[in-house]
C-alpha cells in the first residue's frame, strides 16, 4: 500500500508536515499521526510527538471512536445488497420489541430515526459496557426524542441498534461478522475491537496547564458498533480507498456511492455550515469541494477520515488526547494542500469503442419550452442532459434494456427519459417525466402540451 514519499513534490510534503506540526503544537496533544492517499495508494505519512526519539508510524493503533459507525453501516448495506433486508424496512420487521421499531433501517443509518443522542445512565464512554448489558439498557424508557424521519439527530444508540440487527440476521457477534466480512477481505489486519502492541495510550491534557491525566479504556459492550474500534493510519488509508472505489469482496462501487449521498433531513445550522449525513458517512462542503468521511472521539483519543472524492485524495489523522486539535479542519486541510499543490491529472480522452446510431442522433440541442438544453453521450453508455448555460436541472441517465434511460441524480433521479418517434421513425421529442423536449422552441406541429399558438412567433408591432 505504501509508496515512495517522492511521489509527492518536496514542497507538498513540507506543507503537510508543517500543517500537522502546527496542529500538534497548538492542539497540545501527546502525539499526532497522519497519512494521505492519492490515486488509491498512500503517498505520505507524517507524525509529531512529545516524546523525544519516538514517532508513531502507520502501524500504531489508536481508538477511532465513531469512525466505527461507518464499518457498521457497511455491514448493514451488505445485508441489503444480499436481499436480506430493504433500507425502507421498519426496524420492527427484523428486530422487534426495541421501542424504536417504527424507524426504518435507512433512517437509523442516517441518524434520522428520532433516537436520543446518548444512552441513559452514566457517561457510557467512561464506564464499563457491563452496565448496559441489553438493548433496553442502551435505549432507556424513552428511546424516541423526535418524530421519526423529521430531522437529523446524531444517535449513538441508533448504531448500537444497527449492530444488534447485524447480529440477529447473521446469527453471530457483531465483532465476528465485522472481522469476517470487512476487515479480512480488505486486509485491515491492525483494526480490531481491542488494542494490540504497538498502540497509543489515551490522555486528557489540562486546559490551563501543560500536564496530562491518563484516560480509562473501557470495553463498550453492547455499544461497540457505535465506537469500539482501534485502528491505524495504514488500515484507515486502505479503508478510504474502499470508500472511494468500492471492492466487490465487500461492497460494489454503486453501493459506496450510495453511502456518500445525503440521506438525512438537514438542520438549518447544517445547511449554513454546508454539512450533511449519508448512510454512515459525514459530508461537508469546504474549500469549494465535497468531502466525505467520518470523525471519531473517545476519552483520550480523536480521529478523522476525510475523502475528497473528485480530487481522489484522502487524509487520515489520529491523535491521543480527549480534546485539543480540530481534526475535521486538519483532515480537510491535508486534502486541500495536495489537491491544490498537485491537481489531479485527468485520464486521457478516448473515443467510444462503438455507438448506436439511434442514440447518436439524439445528441445535441433540445428545448424545454424556451430553455436550451444539451444532450450528450457519456463514456459509460448513458446520456447526460443539462442546460447549455447557467444553472438549471441536470442529470446523468443510465440506459435501460427497452431503449429508455433512468435519471441518476438531482431533480430527475429515478425519472424516465424516453424517445417518442413519429410513425415514419423520425424523432418527435423527448419525454422526461411528462416534460417535453423538442428540437426547436415551440415549433408549429410539435407535440407541446397545450399546443402552439397558430400565429407563431412575432414581434411587438
Protein traits:
single chain; 461 residues; alpha+beta; eight-stranded antiparallel sheet; seven-stranded antiparallel sheet; 22% strand
Could you characterize the architecture of this molecule?
Helices cover 27% and strands 22% of the residues. The protein contains 13 helices and 19 strands. The strands form 4 sheets. An 8-stranded antiparallel sheet has the order 12-13-14-15-16-17-18-19, with no helix packed on it. Strand 14 (383-387) and strand 15 (395-399) form a beta hairpin. Helix 2 crosses helix 7 (174-186). The longest helix is centred in the N-terminal third of the chain and has 18 residues, at 10-27. The N and C termini lie far apart (73 Å).
Determine the N-to-C terminus distance: 73 Å
Q: C-alpha Rg, in Å?
A: 26 Å
Helical/strand content category: alpha+beta
What is the residue-mean pLDDT, rounded to a whole number? Answer: 94
Give, in spatial order, the strands making up the sheet with the most strands.
12-13-14-15-16-17-18-19
- Number of beta strands: 19
Give the low-confidence spans. Answer: 1-6
Q: What is the general shape?
A: globular
Helix count equals 13
Q: Mind summarizing the main beta sheet? A: 8 strands, antiparallel
The portion of residues assigned to helices is: 25-40%
Beta-strand percentage range = 15-25%
Short structural summary:
With 461 residues, the chain is of the alpha+beta class. It is built from 13 helices and 19 strands. Strand 1 and strand 2 form a beta hairpin.
